Amino acid sequence: MAQVYGPAGLARPGDAVAAQEVVAAEREDVGSYLQLSGYAFAAGQTRKGDLAGDKAISLATADQREQIKAQVEGLKSQAAQAAVQQAEAIIDAGVQS
Predict the structure, then answer these.
(1) Which entry of 28, 65, 75, 84 is 20 to 30 Å from 91 by CA?
(2) Which residues contact 2 (CB under 8 A, 6 or more apart)?
(3) In this predicted structure, what is the pLDDT of residue 18?
(4) Structure pTM?
(5) Burial, 14: exposed, middle or buried (Cβ in 10 Å; 0-12, 13-18, 19+)?
(6) Residues whose CB falls within 8 Å of the CB of residue 85, separated by 6 or more in sequence, listed in order
C-alpha cells in the first residue's frame, strides 16, 4: 500500500510515511518498521525515521541487530545525500535561468 506513494510510484513521501505507519503498527515486524524508517528519512522526518529504526532494531533477533542498525544508518545516509543532490539541482536550475 505505502509503495504507491513511494519514489517508484506517486513520489509523495509524506503520504508513504502515513500509509506505512498503519502497516507497521498492524504487522509489528522488523521489515515494516525498517521500511517506515526509510520512507520517513526520505520525507525529511528524521525523528520519525530514527524512532522507526530503533523499533526495527528492537524487534530484530540478537544476531540481526547489527545488520538492521547498519541498514537504518544506510537509509538515513541515502536520504541525506538525495536531499543534497535535490538542493544542488534546484540551485543549478536557478543559476541557469
Answers:
(1) 75
(2) 16, 17, 19, 20, 23, 35, 39
(3) 93
(4) 0.81
(5) middle
(6) none
